[in-house]
Amino acid sequence: MRLQAAEWFARDVPVAEIARTPRVSTNAGYVWRRRWRAGGRAALRSKGPGGSVCRLDRGRLDRLAQALEQGPARTASPRTNGGHWLG
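and the corresponding C-alpha cells:
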C-alpha cells in the first residue's frame, strides 16, 4: 500500500483522497508523504516487523506454549478461581 501511495504522491494526489482508500488513515498518509519527500520510494519500503525482540529462551517459550494449550482452568494461580480473577 505504501508503494502504491508513492505513485500517487508522484502524481500529486492529495493525502485526503489517498486516505479514502481502505487500510489507509489520514495520519498514515501524511507520514508516508513526509517519508516519500525525504527519501523517495525507497523510504516507504517495509523495514520488517516492528516491536521488540522476544526475551524468552527456548525452554520458557515451550512452557508458555504448554500453558496456553492447557487453558486457564489448568494453569489457574492462587489468585484465581477456575479462571476467574479474585482481585
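(Above: one complete record from the training split.) Residues 51 and 76 are 29 Å apart (CA to CA).
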